[in-house]
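Why do we care about 3D structure at all? Because function follows from shape, and shape follows, mostly, from sequence. That is the central idea of this module. The next example makes it concrete: a single protein chain, its amino acid sequence, and then its structure expressed as tokens.
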Amino acid sequence: MGSEIRRLETKFPAYKFLFTDYDELSITDEKAVEQFFEENRPDFCINCAAYTAVDKAEEKSELYLVEKLNADAVGYLANQCSKYHTKFLHISTDYVFDGLSSTPYTELDVPNPVSVYGATKLKGEKLAIQNTDAIIIRTSWVYSSFGKNFVKTMMRLMQEKNEVKVVKDQFGTPTYAADLAAVILHIIKSGKWQSGIFHYSNDGITTWYHFAIAIRNIGKYSCAVNPIPTSSFPTPAKRPAYSVLNKSKISEVYLIQPPPWRDSLVECLKILI
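And the structure:
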């Protein structure tokens, strides 16, 4: 996400951007966060950081780090945003829901995470809202030309193997990080700050299997893609079977119309292929 926002920096010349990663600022270090805000006093803070290794997060040895990054660090940032009147925009996840719904989740639906990752992200949401005037954007199935993600993994496997197996019974919506980055900057530029929770993903509903089929077809790979049930692919962390997000609120408040997920996938693959 941070890299996608950096890519858009030149389109927003009215703003001075200050990008940080772990080397410049460890947001799990409360004193470091305090010092950073004292020195820079930003007007906006966009938190893209998270512990996103969903299965590894289930390991007891990782719990401290997961809690620090997904929850405590959000509280540290929120506290400083409140102190310096900085507007805080925090990215969260569809994994705060249990996946038992059959209709797209709205911001009013009660979260019920079924994984450590989801539970810690929900805790981070609460700390953000309790401590400052925050906008939280829940998103889903994020991919990009940067970093590690499903699209890049599928592309690699489809070049290496004759066939791949992909789960067919988990429903959601892919989100191109470049689209989400544009939405974040649109909100900031709008001058309209309505704190609270918003949902954003690309438009449409699909499964991981059909997502993989689209990657294969657009990328013109010859690899076979075979559907399997979740039960045939056990993982340490339970995934929501259905995590489609309702985007009506963000569309109404900020006049945002998410592009179809297939169209955005085409744009990403143009960069990667």
